[in-house]
Amino acid sequence: MDSKQLSSGIHLMAKPSGASCNLQCQYCFYLEKQLLYANATPTPPRMGDQVLEAYIKQSILCNCNNPAGILFTWQGGEPTLMGLDFFRRALSLEKKYAEERPICNSFQTNGTLLDDEWCAWFAENRFLVGLSLDGGEAIHNRYRVGTDGRPSFEQTLRALKLLQKHGVEYNVLASVAHHTAAFALEVYRFFKQQGVEFIQFSPIVERLPDPWAQNLGLKFAAPPRLDRSKKTSTPTTTESVESKAYGDFLISIFEEWVRHDVGKIFVMNFEWTLFNCIGGDGAICYLSKECGNALIVEHNGDLYSCDHFVYPQYKLGNILNDDVQKLVNSPKHQEWGRRKESMLPKRCKECEVLFICRGGCPKDRLSDGLNYLCSGYKAFYNHTAKYMKAFQQLMKYNLPLENIMRAIGQPLVIPASPATQNQEVVLWIK
Question: Region 127-143: what's the mean pLDDT?
Fold first, then answer.
């Protein structure tokens, strides 16, 4: 979803149905959060109108001076469980409190409950919809099944076709788990065949529960402390992608994309890499120097630093009783955000690709403060470095990035013109 999200301000991502979902994806880190609210009401968890209004008002207050506008992000669990009327009320409140400020709504869904009514409404109200789809039938159904154990591919593919039919702005979020990583080109070509233009790949990395998590009945361990001086106590799950395999996965897709699809297919992982290469600081949170501007609002208004850190020790307060801006500026949250950079191990600080990866997501720093995906990321960033330099050269002269496809393996000579500052430009990726 981050590919088209507004890039500044404080993002309050709402979980209106909490961790409730009609699927039981084997690798999902959020489903178990229901256990943290086992004694809460209502059951199943649902965001009431009072919390909804507070979420709308506080999001606007946090971003009222943001020239990019105000972003509302609806996640889950599965947000369609709230029903369409809930989001009609949300839109009414947005218009009431935004006072003509520009608004953007993004919505992450597994798609299985979407129909023509939902998709027509998304299109009418210009929602950006993120659809969770891992690839073709065998790959998707490997991990993404219903609560009854039945596969979900046919329903999700139907949702994709409905989004396309109604002209909804959408992208695909594909999780890359252990099995998936072996089928990089199969996954990518499937999306191309289905007419998908915007794709985001998200690696699955989770650990088996440690004693603290076991005591709460959780399936996965909580994120490690960033100041650990030794390896974490539990191994990764069988669903977790291996570091090298994830790097190879990205490289395989990049090699096909950079030769055939630049300007036609937009792989967000590649866009984010280029953004940091040209001096940006994280078009997505895990590539930022610090954490802290993408917070989670649970169904009852509880506010957490991040959706990977929805644990009691990371709860900041509640939007019904607390000022979100004060919570965001609190020493607790600010220190948590700064530790992403301040607790980098020496190996990271001396690494040639630190300016891109920024140490990765803190939840994945599983060994001596080093990111579990380090070797894979490093291989991918080093492999793509020459291409990123070529992209930068094209951007310098405001030339179409698609030109890169003509410069692989042979020199591309771009004649001198006012656009090239009257210089001949030679692009050659050997």
Answer: 98
Confirm if 341 and 29 have CB atoms less than 8 A apart: no
Rounded to a whole number of angstroms, the distance between the first and last alpha carbons of the chain is 34
The tokens 């920024």 sit on which residue? Answer: 358
Strand partners, 109: 131
Cβ atoms of 106 and 127 within 8 Å: the answer is yes
Put simply, whether the predicted model's pTM sits higher than 0.85 gets the answer: yes
Residues sharing a CB contact under 8 Å with residue 347, sequence separation 6 or more, in sequence order: 370
Weakest-pLDDT range from 62-71, 286-295, 317-326 = 62-71
Between CA 265 and CA 270 the distance in angstroms is 11
Residues acting as catalytic residues: 307
Residue 54: which H helix or E strand, with range?
Answer: helix 49-63
Cite the beta strand spans of 311-418 per DSSP E.
Answer: 315-318, 365-367, 370-371, 412-414
Chain centroid offset of residue 198 CA: 13
Q: How far, in Å, CA of 164 to CA of 210, rounded?
A: 43
Q: Which residues contact 215 (CB under 8 A, 6 or more apart)?
A: none
pLDDT, residue 38, reads 86
